[in-house]
Protein 1
Amino acid sequence: MRIIVIGGVAAGAKAAAKARRADPNNEIIIYQDEAEVSYSACGLPYVISGVIDNERKVVIRQPEDFAKDGIQVLIRHRVIEIDTIKQQINVKNLQTNTDTVVAYDRLILATGARPIVPAIEGITLEGVLTLRNITDLARFKTLLTAIQPIQAVIIGAGYIGLELAESFHELNIKTTIVEKAVRILPKFDPEMAQPVHDHLLENQVELMLGDGLAKLHGDNGRVTAVETESGKILAADLVVVAIGVRPNVELAKIAGIELGPTGAIAVDSRMETRTPGIFAAGDCCESVNRITGAPIWMPLGDIANLQGRVAGENAAGGNAHFPGVFGTAIFKTFKLTVAITGLSEQVAQESGFDPISIVMAGSDRARYYPGKQGFSLKLIASRKDGRLLGAQVIGQGSADKMIDIIATALLGKLTCYDLENADLAYSPPFSPVLSPIIVAAGILNSQLTQLV
Amino acid sequence: MRIIVIGGVAAGAKAAAKARRADPNNEIIIYQDEAEVSYSACGLPYVISGVIDNERKVVIRQPEDFAKDGIQVLIRHRVIEIDTIKQQINVKNLQTNTDTVVAYDRLILATGARPIVPAIEGITLEGVLTLRNITDLARFKTLLTAIQPIQAVIIGAGYIGLELAESFHELNIKTTIVEKAVRILPKFDPEMAQPVHDHLLENQVELMLGDGLAKLHGDNGRVTAVETESGKILAADLVVVAIGVRPNVELAKIAGIELGPTGAIAVDSRMETRTPGIFAAGDCCESVNRITGAPIWMPLGDIANLQGRVAGENAAGGNAHFPGVFGTAIFKTFKLTVAITGLSEQVAQESGFDPISIVMAGSDRARYYPGKQGFSLKLIASRKDGRLLGAQVIGQGSADKMIDIIATALLGKLTCYDLENADLAYSPPFSPVLSPIIVAAGILNSQLTQLV
């Protein structure tokens, strides 16, 4: 049996590896249009800042490594057509510009996502970049070396924008973030986004909120300024467009493979598309939100790996299931960890829940133990039955631990009462005697009890 | 109503505070035989090492702080008798040596635990210490100042012994640990205890295993050497007896309050003893192991706080429940975090489970992200249904996070399959793309699937 994987970054690389382990007898081919496969796109902001000192480090596996496992990797090959009836694809070799038709028995779509780039005046000027893949990284590195920018404008205050703001700070590039929404971090509740807002200002990042990109000014083909929708002109020798991504679904759509309500490829829990024998995984396809049951699009590296594993196993004849996501996400900007899992209070309301919530300060060690670091924790539960709905943590120290505990609590469909009685690990170097999570769950639980 | 609390360190202090919040109208009195209440016994090793630079820092609240909340604290008062029929106690004022009889409506026993000290020759010599409470700390500080010890022997390789080995290393005191068992950390599976063993040796701690304390030699009333059961003589100017603790239950026992099979006070999930109106919390009472359902004695500070909260609320007329424990514990020795939750593989077998397990290396960041730290993770599940039974983590980095995720998974009665599909927070500074927990759960799950 021949399994063809389109795309080899995260989901595709994982799917191929898993398919190989599931059955050593199949022929497995990865087609990848870039020059690299199996790299960590999430590591790119840290290559730009220099925190990761060698860009080769974010490349996890080479085509030769796959070859050793009996997986053929064809880089700089773009799949330009899928014929789902004949079960074959048309592949263009980007080096020779020749097309080849290749038959498949099972197909795995791992075509990823790409940045949204508005078709505005000046968008093609030199110095206007996106940061999504390793090809973008090369452009960044070239530009940084060639012009040593001093003034950057980042369009979009999402996680890529905020990670890059830190990277640019490290490089002594003065940075302004332009964001169309009136606040940063729209997936977070306002009171949790505020300390991040303040922290950016403390680190000399300028924020221009409620304003969008109108056009770009240039000189000699190179960008010189951003003009916003409100008419402000911001001088810039580096502009990053980071207003979001959209799934790469054109190939699938033209082939008649069904898309879901989010615009990404629809899949079942086996990661199979509505076209039998064709699977999808990673940023090109949907997930299910395990709290609301609604389709959700979560283009994140870890989800891509989890989905790739399932798609690969099933393409090889297995029967694995991916049950969906809780919307967990985390990133770092300057000294702050910014993390979320489950539903925000606002989304909980929009989803028909009647949420209660608590925001409290927490710390990662006993109060008397030196070097402790603090964070703000928001915990959200359903008033009806006390079931936990989500959490947000902003700060330092064990912020990531807090989110993972709640993410696991969501997995177990736990209530405030359950979590209030969690048996978490305590010793002064690792936690206050009662974890902030236990304290927060206890406060919510006593609110519920009083309501009864 | 008058609520009397016997003991005011962790469980007692918490119970009193909770009882006060639950009902502001009761009279609440704490009797405490030491000169301090409300301190963190878990912080004491770090006061000795100097990591905590001021011993007052481990005292959380003063009697005056309780007084402000309307809780009367009588320090240096020892309760010497409980009359459960007349509902009164006999209290000795240790300063005046006078006894008083005081009536109660509700009684909370928070009498804690004390170190096991064998009645051997030389045990009362100066320089022979235990470390359990703040009175012990004062003795330690006096001794350290007076004689500046150069050679210590710690009897017992439990967590207090291993924490103190680190403290002594900080103080340049050469240390030998004598342990009767043939290995350290008997609650951990052997392969997980081994790296801790090796780490102690690397830090110049000598280990003498399979040998016990026979007697102590002295000169002029001061200890000079330890003689082991095998006849070895170890020179020592400081000896710490840390072979374990036992619950302080004599007062309860004489009063006819029932003890459980572990030897600690039996309580129901409301933390009420078998004598109605009398509650118990903390190191003097039992818990239930939530996996096996068996009584278990877990004398730990966080459990004391959780139990105290429930005992206090119920003494004030509430109806809170403490559902039990999973056996979670953590401590630090030198650079290693040593943590466990749930059942070890050995205990799982003894409890009638048919366990499967995986031991794997994990790390706390993406492989290319600088400063990452590693640990060894053991995950244990039931072969029958894949339900998680426990985990052990030894190492650095996010070892504590790993244990808390598993502790929460145990709370949700999750299986390997569930955990393999956890939506944990990933970004390169915080985790590999797939958490070591997801990888470990996946390996166990595939073992189970192959068995089907």
Protein 2
Amino acid sequence: MADQPLNLTDYIRDVPDFPKPGILFRDITPMLSHPEAFAQVVTQLSEQFTDAKIDVVAAAEARGFIFAGPVAMNLGASLVPIRKAGKLPFTTVAYTYDLEYGSDTLEIHIDAIPAGARVLVLDDLLATGGTIEACCHLVEKAGGKVAACAFVVELTRLEGARRITDYEKISLIQYG
Amino acid sequence: MADQPLNLTDYIRDVPDFPKPGILFRDITPMLSHPEAFAQVVTQLSEQFTDAKIDVVAAAEARGFIFAGPVAMNLGASLVPIRKAGKLPFTTVAYTYDLEYGSDTLEIHIDAIPAGARVLVLDDLLATGGTIEACCHLVEKAGGKVAACAFVVELTRLEGARRITDYEKISLIQYG
């Protein structure tokens, strides 16, 4: 382990024209491939909420799951998956939201969140904010209270933070 | 924390007729909701490979990601996501395999696995074995060596283990 914190942006790869021409994708897989970098991300995400009395860490598939497991463990919190429609086996609460083209539906198990539980909603990326906003609505619909939203990467130019101004928000890495 | 190990099957919910009539689905979400149970699963998965010199933990989306993060951290290994076609941004190696109806394609980043690296392939469930077999082929195609396959739950009646007889295989919970 390095004594100095790593510069996490060194572990993000810029991939031009993904998922479509003109988009510069910030690829976090090099960060996952480096155990020290991944551990630092997990530690930094967790440390922010040590005293926040988080009961539940909720995350949307698929990349959100990667960080939610170790952060939930660090916080001694429940891990609650938020999934695309039709993926969760038990009775669900659903929330449909608009995308650039069409719409998408996310679901959460109806009994996943104890009434009034304090929920940290986690995702790898804050871009336009549509997914995180949907996740927060879903958590509230399921009876939880959103304590905060946390991200590894935030694309500030896309102003996704404006969709979740009701909540505390942290991100470890910002790109303008 | 309990001193006695938990009975992990207490944290699996049986959901009848999912994803289709006649199928009894073993739902691991209660296990994720109980921090002690989740921690025990992660510890038991990791302990089996402490001395196995694992360089990489590879897992297929989406549920595999939940366990792969903390296990990779415990082993000091890289975490490499295996994803459905079109999800990974960089150049990929792909593998297409037959499903009951149709086919599916999984991908891995071409530079994700150092040549000859020892890879633990992890998933939540071993059922018919199609997905794990595809993951193992993909890991080898990408230059890795499959050191073992590990699962939280194994449905032994479906005989998925017969698809991966070339490799060491462990599962924490077996249903007949």
